[in-house]
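W.,

You were right to be curious about this one. When I first looked at the sequence I had no strong expectations either way, so I just let the prediction run and decided to look at it fresh. Below is the sequence, 171 residues in total, followed by the output.
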Amino acid sequence: MILPFDKSKKKPLNEVSLINILTGGGGHLSEQESSIEIPAGNHKLFITKSVDNFTPEKVKISADFIKFCCKNLGINHPCKVYFTGKRGGPIQTTASFNPNTNDIWIYVKNRNMLADPLRSLAHEIRHFKQNLDGVLTETSGDDGSPHENEANSFSGLMIRMYGKICPGIFE
């Protein structure tokens, strides 16, 4: 479910507005991660300080999308998702999944509609589930591998399904 949002408040994120609007005190700025933590069910979405193009509405939709994907995969194990506006470290392309920590990193800066980073997010959530199932190997991320193709297929399906619930992701 997407909570109602006052569209007149479409401003870039800042720590105070995000924490007050979205979490009602349930989130906090984490000095260790240099990010804002947003609850997403039993999962967590971290918005790093380098993200300057996300409104509180986009964050709410993203948190809901995490829950949507995990529900479709039957994932009960908590996951951590980081949105960043910088490349380097864990993020070299548009997204990454670390099978050692189960952390998901999504590059969100300069991407078109919200559906674009959400597609990457769904792809990495599928890898998260593959890791929980113990099926990932060192070659799972290779182009054309069965695990990579499965993640590509799943991400497209999730965007189509979620787009029917929340067509605003295509704007």
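Here's what jumped out at me. Strands lie at 28-30, 35-40, 43-48, 80-84, 95-98, 103-107. And, maybe more interesting for your project: Helices lie at 15-23, 56-73, 115-132, 146-165.

Coffee later to discuss?

I.
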